[in-house]
Amino acid sequence: MAASVQLNAKLLGPAFIVKPATKQFLKPARIRCAAAATAPPTKRYSITLLPGDGIGPEVIAVAKNVLKLAGSLEGIEFAFQEMPMGGSALDLVGVPLPEETLAAAKQSDAVLLGAIGGYKWDKNEKHLKPETGLLQIREGLKVFANLRPATVLPQLVDSSTLKKEVAEGVDLMVVRELTGGIYFGKPRGYGVTEHGEEIGFNTEVYAAYEVDRIARVAFETARKRHGKLCSVDKANVLEASMFWRKRITAIASEYPDVELSHMYVDNAAMQLIRNPKQFDTIVTNNIFGDILSDEASMITGSIGMLPSASLGESGPGLFEPIHGSAPDIAGQDKANPLATILSAAMLLKYGLGEEHAAKRIEKAVLDTLDKGLRTGDIYSAGTKLVGCQEMGEEVLKSVETQVPAAV
Ligand SMILES: NC(=O)c1ccc[n+]([C@@H]2O[C@H](COP(=O)([O-])OP(=O)(O)OC[C@H]3O[C@@H](n4cnc5c(N)ncnc54)[C@H](O)[C@@H]3O)[C@@H](O)[C@H]2O)c1
């Protein structure tokens, strides 16, 4: 999948010898009578649900109901199939991603994942860790583009660690290349130089097709947003970045309506803190995207609010909150389900092209926050503390009471 390069000793500097790198409590949420407003289904999609571990089953149960209701109001019917993954799959069948789970995911229109992992499996060998299942499903679905929005909602602006005037109004999207670059490039491993010095090495390498396809996802994404794309690289130093910039610039000719700019990664890291509002959509390679998307998400200050989407060229996308399984609060009805609910909105928008249903969900989340309802992670004085289930029920109420004109 990832590109690799044939290197010779001259390219690498000192000569070296390469050694190869080596179901828990779920009260069904009450969906109120939406029958009057429900449109007869004209479209049907199959969704694979992967609840996973910890708070995963709690947030997925809530998001499923929201997806179902928002869909029904737009004439969409879903067939849900729940499959084991992560620690729960290890307990059930001894592997973190059973073949049946991957097969079901591949056959569906989209995949919604909760979270995986937990203390119980922390000491497992690498191939038997829940996290391995996550890498396997990304690889199995060939999802090479990771979309991570960072939006500072007006209701939560005080959760940001940045000054209010800097954080207010931030609404950006990081598009990260997910299956290439230095995390997968070869050669990689450990070796010894001709002077007997031990070394570790990796290779940053991108083939044209890898840059071109992520560029197209990014330009399309910018088009659906505010039409501005900033490509982040290190083209003043790295050949792989110079090549990245050349390909991104070439693909730009297919998108004359999108305004393209380029920025070096060190500057981008500073600008994200200094003036994040200047960004609309950012596209970058695997390693820079890993770092910048975490930095961008922290501008919002609340891990329980952040969704993500991973997309391939064809086939189902994978949609999941960016948080983990939060074993410290699992099973206590304390989890914030909004990141998963917003991941369901991304599933509708980027996975199925159902923008109206997606907007219904996004609006319902804002309405619920406007009412002052907060789970523990985003609670502040003067707001009302609710649990995962109640937050979900309030979002359902909001979805239900929207009139189509408001969407
Ligand atoms: N994509 C994934 O499934 C994923 C991502 C990250 C970590 N993990 C796994 O999750 C487990 C726990 O990892 P961690 O503690 O580093 O990260 P985490 O995201 O699970 O938790 C970090 C902190 O944030 C809180 N938190 C997270 N999500 C929340 C939510 N929705 N509502 C309220 N509070 C929330 C937790 O209670 C905890 O205090 C580990 O096994 C890790 O490998 C999985």
Which terms would index this structure?
ten-stranded mixed β-sheet, 407 residues, Isopropylmalate Dehydrogenase, 2 domains, single chain, binds nicotinamide-adenine-dinucleotide, Rossmann fold, alpha/beta, three-stranded antiparallel β-sheet
CATH topology of the largest domain: Isopropylmalate Dehydrogenase
Content of β-strand:
15-25%
In percent, how helical is the residue content?
Answer: 25-40%
Please report the number of helical segments: 13
Bound molecules: nicotinamide-adenine-dinucleotide
Query: What CATH first level of the largest domain would be assigned?
Result: Alpha Beta
Low-confidence stretches: 4-36
Output mean pLDDT. 90
Pathway: Amino-acid biosynthesis; L-leucine biosynthesis; L-leucine from 3-methyl-2-oxobutanoate: step 3/4
InterPro entries: IsoCit/isopropylmalate_DH_CS (IPR019818), IsoPropMal-DH-like_dom (IPR024084), Isopropylmalate_DH (IPR004429)
Cofactor: Mg(2+); Mn(2+)
Catalytic activity: (2R,3S)-3-isopropylmalate + NAD(+) = 4-methyl-2-oxopentanoate + CO2 + NADH
Describe what this molecule looks like in 3D.
The chain has 407 residues and is an alpha/beta fold. The chain folds into two domains: 43-149 and 305-406, Isopropylmalate Dehydrogenase (3-Layer(aba) Sandwich); 157-177 and 205-301, 3-Layer(aba) Sandwich (Rossmann fold), CATH 3.40.50. Helix content is 37%, strand content 19%. The model is unreliable at 4-36 (pLDDT under 50). Nicotinamide-adenine-dinucleotide (NAD) binds at residues 55, 115-118, 131, 134, 303-304, 320, 323-329, 335-336, 339, 375, 377. Pathway: Amino-acid biosynthesis; L-leucine biosynthesis; L-leucine from 3-methyl-2-oxobutanoate: step 3/4. One of its GO terms (biological process) is L-leucine biosynthetic process. Its EC number is 1.1.1.85.
